[in-house]
Amino acid sequence: MSFKRTNPLALAVLALLAERPMHPYEMAQTMRERHQEEVVKLNYGSLYTVVESLAKHELITASATRRAGNRPERTVYSVTAAGTAELHDWLRELIAVPAKEYRRFEAGISMVGLLPPPDALAVVQRRCAAVDEQLTALAVLLERLAGMGLPQLAWIELDYRLAMLRAERAWLTWFATATRDGTVGGYEHWEDAHR
Q: Which residues contact 105 (CB under 8 A, 6 or more apart)?
């Protein structure tokens, strides 16, 4: 039975275990410290399910158990050679091969003409304000990570996210201005449809 590359959490687990053996709680803590929950949905129930699946597919293996004080024993997992190969193949595929992703915003903006222009302008301005908040929060986080001495490669996905947010902000600003000025292509028909 082959492993299906559908869950980004499985990729994150393989990547963490490529660094060093860990138990699931330590994996979750490390992901939170690195702010990976920004790009990978993380909850303990799913994490344990993913760990079990990876072990079943022999991509990771239980390598030890640890007990700290009164706490229950924790199973420590290590990545196998097959798991390292899977991780590398999966990363190559994710980075090199564009995939169709169905984004909610793109679905909504594709039908923006169904809203009256003033309503469209209002919701785009609201999104622009939300993106501004995200940009500010991300800039603060990146400054903090850089101040901790972490190299850019340790948080490169956040750098990518910052670039995407800046591009979205620029597009939203253009669209809001073109809507307000009535210069977006098809504006006359759009306005007539809502009279």
A: 127
